[in-house]
């Protein structure tokens, strides 16, 4: 191994990087348009600011359609679902098939989670690129689960008739819709933490683009040993 | 004066938007620019709108493939809401007031017997009831009880071409809509006369409403005055304004 090769380690496979960034676009479309759909008939007594929703210009929509941009938001949502679903499917098939999930997200134990939470609270939790601690593993597994729940509840409220068993599984149309909202809230909360951590540890950002990270000494040693 | 000011304002906004869009393109699709997607007026661009319309038509085909004659869930009568929500593209005070005694349902298109139907003739047809969930495109839903003649029975009675693609509806308030023949023939699709065991009140579409529990609420036209069978895509009031046409649930 040459000195140049030794200085960098590969941390994110290309499939993970490509699906990650496509997912960023899909998430922006689904959340932005979903917020506007929410506004047309909110479950709880609040609305999202129209400026941060997707679905075209509400004023133009009001002039032409006599509605505040719901039609546009629905078009975006039901177009974005294909991007989300196809990209997500590729990611899941790759993650399971290649062993990426097994290597990156497991093993995971409650004891390790508590240990790493305590370490994080005392600022002693190391952040090593490409190697996830138990808190990260839990968050990533959690957001993947939330993603699956979003797709399933999305199908349940899109087709509460044709997929009535699925709607029943989530407690019926109205409850499935509520879970669809709570899943969004969980994902947005994750995104908030995720992006905050990227801002705190900015070296993670280029790594998600190039796939490579400068090697730490111990990792270089490991590479040499292997 | 205010119209002039308005048009100037629109013009100014247009210029600002063009400049913003150029800057946007220069910056490229960075992560920061990507978050701008939420705020900017992407749908104003024709190519984006064309793509969205094309995907909506694709979704029509996907939904037609997913459609089956399976029955939509039904509920006990106690679950039916008596004071059902009023819904139209205008206020409740503007609903059409139709005179039942002189009302006639007009028929046209691929139908053998296009003789208009009076209410007395319609009421004499075999009737059935259902307690089903009305799902609105906006997201709310409500369970109600509707009664009327199975739409399939009526289509057969008038000699409609059941191999045609679409059934279209015209309403007294200018509303119009259309459905695919497969959904029209679904056993729970009703030409409805009653809600909550009472003749439809004016706000619920007196004298005729289509109750089609396999589709979203806006595919359930009220105050129907005419219907036709056709192979030419008829569109609809909301459908022509961007709502998905098939709108199946």
Structural class by sheet pairing and helices of chain A: mainly alpha
Q: Which strand order does the major sheet of chain A show?
A: 1-2
| Rg over alpha carbons of chain B | 22 Å
The CATH H-level homologous superfamily of the largest domain in chain B: Oxidoreductase, molybdopterin-binding domain
Secondary structure category of chain B:
alpha+beta
Helix proportion of chain A: over 70%
Low-confidence stretches of chain A: 217-226
Largest sheet of chain B: 5 strands, mixed
What pair of chains forms the biggest interface?
A: A-B, 41 and 41 residues
Number of helical regions of chain B = 6
CATH classification, class level of chain A: Mainly Alpha
What is the arithmetic mean of pLDDT of chain B?
A: 87
Biggest beta sheet summary of chain A: 2 strands, antiparallel
Distance between the termini of chain A: 11 Å
Which CATH-level-2 architecture of the largest domain in chain B? Answer: Alpha-Beta Complex
In CATH terms, what is the fold-level topology of chain A?
Fumarate Reductase Cytochrome B subunit
Helix content of chain B: 25-40%
Summary keywords:
heterodimer, A: 226 residues, mainly alpha, Fumarate Reductase Cytochrome B subunit, two-stranded antiparallel ribbon, globular, disordered C terminus, B: 249 residues, alpha+beta, Sulfite Oxidase, Chain A, domain 2, 2 domains, five-stranded mixed beta sheet, five-stranded antiparallel beta sheet, 22% strand
Overview of the molecule:
The complex is a heterodimer of chains A (226) and B (249). Chain A has 11 helices and 2 strands. Chain A is mainly alpha-helical and 226 residues long. Chain A has one domain: Transmembrane di-heme cytochromes, Chain C (Fumarate Reductase Cytochrome B subunit). In chain A, strands 1-2 form a two-stranded antiparallel ribbon. In chain A, helix 2 runs antiparallel to helix 4 (70-97) and helix 7 runs antiparallel to helix 9 (173-200). The termini of chain A are close together. The relative contact order of chain A is 0.13. In chain B, a hairpin with a 7-residue loop joins strand 1 (104-109) and strand 2. Helix content of chain B is 28%, strand content 22%. In chain B, the strands form 2 sheets. Chain B has a 5-stranded mixed sheet with strand order 2-1-10-5-6. The N and C termini of chain B lie far apart (48 Å). Chain B is an alpha+beta fold and 249 residues long. Chain B folds into 2 domains: 1-44, no CATH class; 66-241, Sulfite Oxidase, Chain A, domain 2 (Alpha-Beta Complex), CATH 3.90.420. Chain B is globular and about 50 Å long. The relative contact order of chain B is 0.16. The model of chain B is unreliable at 1-36 (pLDDT under 50). Classes of the chains: A mainly alpha (226), B alpha+beta (249). The interface between A and B is large, with 41 and 41 residues.
């Amino acid at each position: 191994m040459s000195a140049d090769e030794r200085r960098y380690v590969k941390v994110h496979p290309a499939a993970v990087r490509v699906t990650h960034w496509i997912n960023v676009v899909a998430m922006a479309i689904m959340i932005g348009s979903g917020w506007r759909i929410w506004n047309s008939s909110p479950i709880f007594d609040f609305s999202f600011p129209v400026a941060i929703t997707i679905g075209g210009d509400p004023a133009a929509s009001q002039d032409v359609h006599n509605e505040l941009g719901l039609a546009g938001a629905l078009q975006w949502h039901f177009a974005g679902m294909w991007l989300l679903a196809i990209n997500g499917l590729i990611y899941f098939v790759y993650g399971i098939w290649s062993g990426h999930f097994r290597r990156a997200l497991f093993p995971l134990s409650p004891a390790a989670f508590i240990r790493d939470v305590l370490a994080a609270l005392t600022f002693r939790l190391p952040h090593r690129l490409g190697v996830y601690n138990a808190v990260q593993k839990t968050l990533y597994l959690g957001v993947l689960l939330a993603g699956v729940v979003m797709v399933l509840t999305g199908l349940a409220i899109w087709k509460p008739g044709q997929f009535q068993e699925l709607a029943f599984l989530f407690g019926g149309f109205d409850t499935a819709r509520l879970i669809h909202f709570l899943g969004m809230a969980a994902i947005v909360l994750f995104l908030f933490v995720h992006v905050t951590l990227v801002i705190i540890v900015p070296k993670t950002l280029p790594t998600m683009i190039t796939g490579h990270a400068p090697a730490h000494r111990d990792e270089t040693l490991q590479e040499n040993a292997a | 004066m205010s119209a002039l000011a308005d048009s100037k304002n629109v013009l100014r906004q247009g210029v600002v938007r063009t400049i913003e869009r150029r800057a946007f393109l220069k910056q490229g699709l960075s992560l920061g620019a990507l978050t701008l997607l939420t705020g900017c007026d992407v749908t104003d661009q024709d190519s984006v709108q064309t793509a969205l319309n094309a995907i909506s038509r694709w979704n029509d085909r996907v939904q037609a493939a997913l459609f089956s004659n399976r029955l939509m869930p039904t509920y006990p009568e106690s679950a039916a809401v008596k004071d059902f929500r009023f819904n139209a593209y205008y206020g409740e005070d503007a609903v059409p007031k139709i005179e039942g005694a002189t009302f006639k349902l007009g028929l046209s298109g691929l139908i053998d017997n296009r003789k208009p139907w009076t209410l007395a003739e319609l009421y004499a047809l075999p009737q059935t009831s259902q307690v089903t969930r009305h799902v609105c495109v906006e997201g709310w839903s409500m369970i109600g009880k509707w009664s009327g003649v199975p739409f399939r029975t009526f289509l057969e009675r008038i000699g409609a071409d059941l191999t045609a693609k679409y059934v279209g509806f015209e309403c007294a308030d200018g509303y119009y809509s259309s459905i695919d023949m497969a959904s029209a023939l679904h056993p729970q699709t009703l030409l409805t006369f009653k809600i909550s065991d009472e003749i439809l009140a004016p706000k619920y579409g007196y004298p005729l409403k289509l109750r089609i529990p396999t589709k979203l609420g806006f595919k359930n036209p009220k105050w129907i005055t005419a219907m036709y069978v056709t192979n030419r895509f008829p569109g609809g009031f909301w459908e022509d304004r961007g709502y998905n046409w098939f709108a199946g649930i």
